[in-house]
Amino acid sequence: MSKGTKGIGVAGLAVTAAGVLTNLLGYVVPLIGARRLSAADLSALATILAITAIAGVASTGLQIAVAVHRARHGASSVTRSALLTVVVIAGALAVALPIAVLVLHLPALATVLAGISTVGVVAAGRWLGEMQGDQRFLPLAVGLAVLAGGRYGGVIAGLAAGLGLTTALLLGAATAVLVLPVLHLLARRPGVAAEGEPLAARAVLTAGGATLAMLVVSYADLILARRFLPFDASGEYSVGTVLTKGALWAPQVVTIMALPRLAQADRRTLRIALALVTACGVVLVAGAAVAGGFAFRLAGGPDYVSLGRYAPIFAATGAVYGLLFVLINAQVAAGAKWPAAPLWICAAGFVLAAWLVLPHTLPGIAWGALGTAVVCLAATSVLVGLRLRASVTAPRPEHATLSID
């Protein structure tokens, strides 16, 4: 194994570990909350986390936009667009959270503190994007782990100590803000001047919109199951979506590491990324087919083992969305104007089909979700193919050398 390949492998493992840590800490918050909070406070915590998760999509959008811009133009100013993103999200939260407090009967101070934490998470996207765009994946992995600790660590500590919902979210807001200087130091490259073209705010909007569309279309089945299935079947469906999300996010590291080269129009990287994600999906679907009952036991406990026959459907849906995630990022990296359009159309079509056509059963919604994922993938693949064909005669930029710091 060459030194470069070994370095890429180590960086990939580090980024994967950071992603696992983030997901694990996010899972621990409601887990501890269920044991330390009253039913009313637990419900409030779950609702607040859902609202802030939607707003936090802007962090991923900012990270992607900065990474793509950095890979194309090198060190350049992103401060204005990053600050604008933070201000817009803070303003949106300032409007939305009081309404949520009134309509959903949420504790006001706890909700405000969660909003402050979310603004910190959004701001962090700027420095994560700089490290990703520079292909400095080991510092990026450290940054992802630091952000996960800041985002969830204070809340977990507060809940574990029995300090109550508001105090736990106060600690969470403090840690989310305090980690920002650490991320700034990780991303800093002394002696590198920002000489390239400044990042346009529209690029952040496009990346954020694509990320939000991906979130909506991949969670639509869970919402529709809640709407159309009996409560017990809806609960069973929510366990199945754990397999979907696992298959979707398992190969996430491939997209993270491929994005800078996708921004440099590297078609070979796109082919390799699609091949790797496909291989991962095949393995996961095959595993679900062989050990579906065990997969449901891991996801929800022994009461759900009988649903194992549906495991391949959920895993296949996640695997297809994993491929779609690669292509959407490729479209964003290429500067496509409306990369999320097929996702919004498919999500609307799924809702309409669930309302009018699909059987209101667990397998009915699950097959509908898989069909939606396949249609989204096919439509996006066509758009990517057309773009590649149109650019076949265009000059290709020089590829930056992959660095593993």
From TrEMBL:
Domain of life: Bacteria
The keyword RNA-binding belongs to this UniProt entry's keyword annotation: no
Subcellular location: Cell membrane
InterPro entries (alphabetical): Poly_Biosynth_Transport
Claim: Membrane is one of the keywords in the record: yes
Coiled-coil region: none
The name this protein goes by in its record: Polysaccharide biosynthesis protein
Organism lineage: Bacteria, Bacillati, Actinomycetota, Actinomycetes, Micromonosporales
Principal subcellular localisation of the protein: membrane
Topology term for the membrane: Multi-pass membrane protein
Membrane-spanning parts: 7-32, 44-69, 81-102, 108-128, 140-161, 167-187, 199-220, 240-260, 272-298, 310-328, 340-358, 364-386
Keyword annotations of the record: Cell membrane, Membrane, Transmembrane, Transmembrane helix
